[in-house]
Inverse folding.
């Protein structure tokens, strides 16, 4: 990398800070930017600045928005008595793309992880409890990931919500559509068997 000019090295270093971008990919992206037109480079830099200036967290669900509250939270066509709890804004987007959920959301911005020093006060759990009490919530659907931290967070939330008159559900897990049983891990198969349903 030392053979590149200093300004290009700086760009490569900044790009390599992005998640999933190593030094080689960062160099490839930097060279692509260098070859692109000034207009394209300017549009890229302006869109980065625009995101930093305009995007904020919704004061209700803590999803990403430009106007507060977000479009989902102000949509009267949604079921505001059902809240789906997700870990991150991109989880909310994934569920919205599926079209499977017609309620509203609550983004925790992480999961409980004592090993990393992340406890309940570091997540948007207090705000979730306030919504349950104030907004006449009838169901909280826990859609955290099925890894150790996601399961621990779901269990913690289910326990905390026991003292409230609200139905607590957990998204189903198991064999994916098109999945081949011989390639699935033991935990997924066990969970699929435990949560089997009548036809």
């Amino acid at each position: 990398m030392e053979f590149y000019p200093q300004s290009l090295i700086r760009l490569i270093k900044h790009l390599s800070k992005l998640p999933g971008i190593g030094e080689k990919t960062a160099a490839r992206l930097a060279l692509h930017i260098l070859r692109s037109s000034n207009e394209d480079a300017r549009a890229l830099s302006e869109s980065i600045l625009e995101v930093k200036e305009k995007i904020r967290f919704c004061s209700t669900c803590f999803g990403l928005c430009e106007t507060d509250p977000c479009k989902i939270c102000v949509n009267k066509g949604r079921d505001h008595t059902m809240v789906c709890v997700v870990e991150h804004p991109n989880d909310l987007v994934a569920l919205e793309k599926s079209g499977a959920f017609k309620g509203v959301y609550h983004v925790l911005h992480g999961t409980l992880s004592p090993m990393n020093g992340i406890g309940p006060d570091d997540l948007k759990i207090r705000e979730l409890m306030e919504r349950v009490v104030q907004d006449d919530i009838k169901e909280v659907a826990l859609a955290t990931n099925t890894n150790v931290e996601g399961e621990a967070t779901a269990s913690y939330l289910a326990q905390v919500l026991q003292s409230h008159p609200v139905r607590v559900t957990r998204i189903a897990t198991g064999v994916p559509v098109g999945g081949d049983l011989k390639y699935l891990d033991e935990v997924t198969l066990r969970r699929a068997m435990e949560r089997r349903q009548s036809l």
